[in-house]
Amino acid sequence: MFGNMADMMGLMGKMKDLQSRMKEAQDSLVTITQVAESGGGMVKATVNGQKALIGLDIDKDLVNPDDKEMLQDLIVAAVNKALDDIEPKIKEHLQKATDGVLPNIPGLDLGGFMK
């Protein structure tokens, strides 16, 4: 009986450590960035690991009030690509931050902690 209690306390300690490391990892996601472009590089969007748009570069030749829709489409495309491309970096960052805290459990996805 006491062995189970000690195991449970140890697991609780590991969970606290995991939560602490996840919080630190999530806070440091702002340091991870991804740039993506559309329109052959005429629009470049930069996002961070917290999935925030932190930079947008638009070629001056695209700024045409008569063709606003194309510019909007290119911005959306660049931002969405950057957000897609940063996903693997986020996952890798979180895995590194929690490496060794819990045993490697196949199928355990820590991405749920991000929500």
Which helices and strands appear, and what pairs or packs with what?
Blueprint: H1 2-27, E1 33-38, E2 43-48, E3 53-58, H2 68-98
Antiparallel strand pairs: 1-2, 2-3
Tell me about this structure:
With 115 residues, the protein is of the alpha+beta class. It has a single domain, classed as Nucleoid-associated protein YbaB-like domain (Ybab, Chain: A, 2-Layer Sandwich). 50% of the residues lie in helices and 16% in strands. The chain has 2 helices and 3 strands. It has helices at residues 2-27, 68-98; strands spanning 33-38, 43-48, 53-58. Strands 1-2-3 form a 3-stranded antiparallel sheet. The longest helix is centred in the last third of the chain and has 31 residues, at 68-98. The chain is rod-shaped. The mean pLDDT is 85. Pfam families: YbaB_DNA_bd. InterPro entries: YbaB-like_sf (IPR036894), YbaB/EbfC (IPR004401).
Helix content: 40-55%
Rg estimate, integer Å: 21 Å
Q: Oligomeric status of the shown chains?
A: single chain
Compute the average pLDDT: 85
| CATH topology descriptor | Ybab, Chain: A
Strand order of the largest sheet: 1-2-3
SS-based structural class?
Answer: alpha+beta
CATH superfamily: Nucleoid-associated protein YbaB-like domain
> How many domain regions?
1
Number of strands: 3
Q: What is the class in the CATH system?
A: Alpha Beta
Give, in order, the helices and strands: HEEEH
Pfam family, one: YbaB_DNA_bd
Subcellular location: Cytoplasm, Nucleoid
Organism: Dyadobacter psychrophilus
GO molecular function: DNA binding
